[in-house]
Amino acid sequence: MPRRFLKKILPAPQALRERWAVRLFGDRMADPQLWTLHRRGVTYAFGAGIAICFVPLPVHLLLCVCVALLWRLNLPVMYGATWIFTNPFTAVPVYYMAYRVGAALMHLPRQHFRFVADVHWFRHGLEPVWQPFVLGCFTCAVVGGLLGWLLLEGVWRWQVAARYRARHSTQSA
Q: What confidence tens digit (pLDDT) does each residue in 120-173 have?
């Protein structure tokens, strides 16, 4: 991935440090590894961001910060990958796909259910679908994270090799 392109679309480190979820972590956010655009940090962060988007709890950003601090990965790329795949428009299809994957892995027929926001539904209506949903989320997180990392790693390496070949072909001519 070209660094110039990423520098254009990513927010400034200071802008992200001022967000409330990020400020909770204090001085650890000043680690340069969280903000630099090198291949390892960006590709692993992209894969981890895709994996985090399958977590069925609304703690994606907090989880992104914890994983980025723990593994010293690029935080803006992880945020971006998480929000590209799980935003208000894509969350329902992503989680439905995860449920369908889990149901297929468990060889269960598809359950039809209607969401009703009350305690009774959470106690009784969620019971037949929670196991395939959790299995599907875990499976999609692992597969999606690995595929995202491998895809971006391949694109990054191809881009670097193409620029190297272009640079050396002009020097020899």
A: 777 777 777 888 989 999 999 999 999 999 999 999 999 889 988 888 887 665
Number of CB atoms found within 10 A of residue 119's CB:
8
Q: Could you tell me which of 153, 140, 150, 135 has the C-alpha nearest to residue 1?
A: 153
CA distance 117 to 42: 39
- 53, 60, 65: which is closest to 22 by C-alpha? 65
CA distances from 99 to 41, 85, 94, 107, 167 (A): 30, 16, 9, 12, 48
Is pLDDT above 60 for 1? no
DSSP-assigned letters across all residues of 82-126: HHHHSSTTTHHHHHHHHHHHHHHHTT-PPPP-----SHHIIIIIS
CA geometry: angle 55, 48, 148, nearest 5 deg: 105
- What 3-state class would DSSP assign to 10? coil
Distance CA 45, CA 33 (A): 11
Q: What is the rounded distance in angstroms from the CA atom of residue 78 to the CA atom of residue 48?
A: 7
How many Cα atoms are found within 13 Å in the side-chain-facing hemisphere of 53?
A: 30
Which residues fall within 8 angstroms of residue 141, CB to CB, at 6 or more apart?
A: 50, 51, 52, 53, 54, 55
